TrEMBL record:
Pfam families: Methyltransf_11 (PF08241). It comes from Candidatus Uhrbacteria bacterium RIFCSPLOWO2_01_FULL_55_36. This is Methyltransferase type 11 domain-containing protein. Residues 11-63 form the Methyltransferase type domain. One of its GO terms (molecular function) is S-adenosylmethionine-dependent methyltransferase activity.
Length: 95
């Protein structure tokens, strides 16, 4: 992940999670660290997850750390690739 984030030409975007300003299937990776924690994010997880799925390419990867996303919503769009040391799924691939 570090290679992707710090790659020359890569940039980060801050945006409304319910209206991500990118075209359908335009991203290979969506990464979040802490922004989806239920103590910080108290809105519509189903909408958020569907929006992430919308912008990700098929087989694109959604990586999140620090956040308790509802697995039943994630499993509609994604397959779990990896769980963290606490057995929380945090790396997902778009179906």
């Amino acid at each position: 992940m570090k290679q992707i984030v710090y790659k020359e030409g890569a940039h980060q975007v801050r945006a409304d999670a319910h209206k991500i300003p990118f075209s359908d299937e335009s991203m290979s990776v969506v990464y979040s660290r802490g922004g989806l924690d239920q103590r910080v994010y108290t809105f519509d997880y189903a909408k958020l997850i569907s929006e992430i799925a919308r912008v990700l390419k098929t087989k694109g990867v959604f990586i999140h750390f620090i956040g308790d996303l509802p697995a039943h919503e994630l499993e509609k769009y994604f397959t779990c690739l990896k769980k963290d040391e606490f057995n929380f799924p945090n790396i997902w691939e778009k179906k």
